Amino acid sequence: MIRHIVMWKFRPGTEAEARNFMEKLSALYGVIPQIRAQQIGVDCSASGKNYSAVLVSDFDSLEDLETYKNDPRHQAVSALCKAIREDRVAVDYEL
pTM here? Predict the structure, then answer.
Protein backbone atom coordinates (compact mmCIF):
# COMPACT_ATOMS: atom_id res chain seq x y z
CA MET A 1 0.00 0.00 0.00
CA ILE A 2 1.29 3.46 -0.93
CA ARG A 3 0.34 6.63 0.91
CA HIS A 4 0.45 9.80 -1.22
CA ILE A 5 0.51 13.12 0.65
CA VAL A 6 0.41 16.47 -1.11
CA MET A 7 0.26 19.94 0.44
CA TRP A 8 -0.42 23.20 -1.38
CA LYS A 9 -0.04 26.84 -0.53
CA PHE A 10 -2.51 28.89 -2.55
CA ARG A 11 -1.89 32.45 -3.67
CA PRO A 12 -3.74 35.15 -1.72
CA GLY A 13 -7.00 36.13 -3.37
CA THR A 14 -7.69 32.69 -4.84
CA GLU A 15 -9.99 31.41 -2.09
CA ALA A 16 -12.97 30.78 -4.40
CA GLU A 17 -10.78 28.98 -6.93
CA ALA A 18 -9.19 26.93 -4.13
CA ARG A 19 -12.63 25.82 -2.91
CA ASN A 20 -13.55 24.82 -6.47
CA PHE A 21 -10.29 22.87 -6.81
CA MET A 22 -10.85 21.07 -3.49
CA GLU A 23 -14.43 20.14 -4.45
CA LYS A 24 -13.30 18.73 -7.78
CA LEU A 25 -10.40 16.89 -6.15
CA SER A 26 -12.74 15.36 -3.59
CA ALA A 27 -15.09 14.25 -6.38
CA LEU A 28 -12.35 12.03 -7.86
CA TYR A 29 -12.75 9.56 -4.99
CA GLY A 30 -15.04 6.78 -6.14
CA VAL A 31 -14.55 7.80 -9.78
CA ILE A 32 -10.90 6.91 -10.31
CA PRO A 33 -10.80 3.27 -9.19
CA GLN A 34 -7.14 3.26 -8.12
CA ILE A 35 -7.87 5.57 -5.17
CA ARG A 36 -8.37 3.26 -2.17
CA ALA A 37 -8.81 6.01 0.45
CA GLN A 38 -8.76 9.80 0.40
CA GLN A 39 -8.79 12.59 2.95
CA ILE A 40 -8.64 16.28 2.15
CA GLY A 41 -8.10 18.97 4.75
CA VAL A 42 -7.94 22.74 4.78
CA ASP A 43 -5.67 24.55 7.23
CA CYS A 44 -7.70 25.93 10.12
CA SER A 45 -5.01 28.12 11.68
CA ALA A 46 -5.14 31.87 11.30
CA SER A 47 -1.38 32.28 11.07
CA GLY A 48 -1.12 32.29 7.28
CA LYS A 49 2.24 30.54 7.69
CA ASN A 50 1.04 26.99 7.11
CA TYR A 51 0.23 25.30 3.85
CA SER A 52 -3.35 25.93 2.74
CA ALA A 53 -4.55 22.37 2.18
CA VAL A 54 -3.51 18.72 2.23
CA LEU A 55 -4.45 15.54 0.38
CA VAL A 56 -3.78 12.13 1.92
CA SER A 57 -4.63 9.23 -0.36
CA ASP A 58 -3.83 5.53 -0.51
CA PHE A 59 -3.10 3.29 -3.49
CA ASP A 60 -2.37 -0.42 -3.79
CA SER A 61 0.92 0.19 -5.62
CA LEU A 62 3.20 2.80 -7.17
CA GLU A 63 1.80 1.71 -10.53
CA ASP A 64 -1.73 2.55 -9.37
CA LEU A 65 -0.49 5.94 -8.13
CA GLU A 66 1.04 6.64 -11.55
CA THR A 67 -2.19 5.56 -13.26
CA TYR A 68 -4.08 8.05 -11.05
CA LYS A 69 -1.61 10.85 -11.78
CA ASN A 70 -1.96 10.28 -15.52
CA ASP A 71 -5.75 9.90 -15.53
CA PRO A 72 -7.27 12.75 -17.60
CA ARG A 73 -9.75 13.51 -14.81
CA HIS A 74 -6.90 13.99 -12.35
CA GLN A 75 -4.93 16.00 -14.91
CA ALA A 76 -7.87 18.41 -15.34
CA VAL A 77 -8.14 18.96 -11.58
CA SER A 78 -4.37 19.33 -11.29
CA ALA A 79 -4.43 22.08 -13.92
CA LEU A 80 -6.86 24.06 -11.73
CA CYS A 81 -4.43 23.80 -8.83
CA LYS A 82 -1.39 24.81 -10.87
CA ALA A 83 -3.15 28.05 -11.79
CA ILE A 84 -3.61 29.13 -8.15
CA ARG A 85 -0.81 27.61 -6.11
CA GLU A 86 2.37 29.29 -5.05
CA ASP A 87 3.96 26.13 -3.66
CA ARG A 88 3.46 22.36 -3.55
CA VAL A 89 5.20 19.59 -1.64
CA ALA A 90 4.57 15.86 -1.77
CA VAL A 91 5.73 12.56 -0.36
CA ASP A 92 4.87 8.97 -1.26
CA TYR A 93 5.71 6.16 1.13
CA GLU A 94 4.99 2.50 1.66
CA LEU A 95 2.64 1.49 4.46
Answer: 0.93
